[in-house]
Write a structure and sequence with these properties.
The structure is a single chain. By secondary structure, the protein is an alpha/beta fold. Helix content is about 25%, strand content about 20%. It is built from 9 helices and 15 strands. The longest helix is centred in the first third of the chain and has 20 residues. The chain is globular and about 50 Å long.
Length: about 350
């Protein structure tokens, strides 16, 4: 679409007016193929047997996800938000996963895009193949800085100790190289709050701290989730001064340890998630309904059937915009996962 914008990349929080965004595409999506320990650590137990090399998601799930993403992109464009889309890739042919979840692979901090150092080997080509042309286009702006991920070593030492020791409370990866998914971090002005997880280690956190522009700091939230993988269904900043959180994964005490949240209103989500059968949640917990996208400090995009959650958001002064997204949920994420906000107007 044609659209004029003074800035190509500029985002310092999760709630200011969204001006420009990347929206993923689901065509060709496959079940991720990773180590048994990783699958057991991160995926719902009922679906562990689905995660086999180059196995496509059911056709009706992928078709539904494609339609939902097109509808979502159209909603954003109607709101005058510039929308970039990736190339379509046949992921089964390259041993990959999906192009539907760009948030996992790109972290925007100020004018800088930091490409994730993925732990999952099946994702090592994802950004280059699907999103490379978008990054190349954005990088033509002299004010934009793109930090490309280093090559994953082969053989990759990341799983060595974790593969052989089934120790409760130990993450599925070690700390031998930098590893992180961008979706393990959220922006609160010049402070990033993130978590260690089954895909993010301490060297990954240190890598981000070195990559962010001067003046930004990275802090780690203490979570109560042995299956941790991505923070955006654990804490959700709705607007400046208001955050909701998943009480099964984090406590207000842990959140208050962060100075940037000291004066914020922090609310435990009172909604009890229901187990969904169709389409199946192959890769996420039912708490995926918390994974929303703020268009500004009032409007948020919410899954069309999450009416109880939406009603609570209305009580908090928000204006939900409904969009069907259940098939996207089935392949591993929701609105926050499926986007990378490039420009937010402070």
């Amino acid at each position: 679409m044609s659209h004029s914008n003074d800035l190509s990349v500029s985002a310092n929080n999760e709630w200011s007016r969204l001006r420009s965004v990347i929206v993923g595409k689901a065509e060709g999506s496959c079940f991720p193929s990773e180590s048994e320990r990783m699958i057991k650590a991160t995926m719902p137990e009922d679906h562990h047997d689905q995660f086999k090399p180059s196995k496509p998601f059911p056709a009706h799930v992928v078709q539904g996800a494609c339609q939902e993403l097109e509808r979502f992109a159209a909603i954003l464009e109607r709101e005058d938000i510039k929308t970039y889309r990736p190339r379509t890739i046949r992921w089964s042919e390259v041993g990959g996963y999906t192009g539907a979840m760009p948030r996992d692979g790109m972290l925007v901090v100020g004018n800088t895009i930091i490409e994730a150092c993925y732990a999952w080997k099946c994702r090592k080509q994802e950004i280059r193949l699907a999103f490379g042309p978008v990054l190349d286009q954005l990088e033509k702006d002299a004010n934009v800085r793109v930090v490309r991920a280093p090559e994953i070593p082969c053989p990759d030492p990341l799983y060595e100790d974790a593969e052989t020791k089934d120790q409760p409370g130990v993450w599925a990866i070690n700390n031998s190289r930098a590893a992180f998914d961008a979706a393990d971090f959220l922006r609160f002005g010049k402070t990033l709050i993130g978590q260690l997880s089954n895909v993010t280690n301490m060297k990954g956190v240190e890598y981000i701290q070195q990559a962010v522009p001067s003046g930004y700091t990275v802090e780690l939230l203490q979570v109560q989730d042995p299956h941790a993988m991505h923070i955006d269904a654990t804490i959700v900043p709705l607007r400046e001064g208001l955050l909701i959180y998943n009480p099964e994964r984090v406590s207000e005490v842990s959140l208050r340890r962060h100075e940037v949240l000291a004066e914020w209103k922090l609310l435990a989500c009172p909604i009890i998630p229901t187990v969904r059968v169709s389409p199946p949640l192959y890769m996420t917990s039912p708490w995926i309904f918390l994974n929303i996208l703020s268009l500004d400090e009032k409007r948020v995009v919410v899954e069309a059937e999450e009416t109880e959650f939406a009603a609570w958001l209305v009580e908090l002064g928000m204006e939900p915009i409904f969009c069907p997204f259940r098939h996207v949920n089935s392949i591993g994420g929701s609105f926050h996962c499926a986007t990378v906000d490039l420009v937010r107007a402070d």
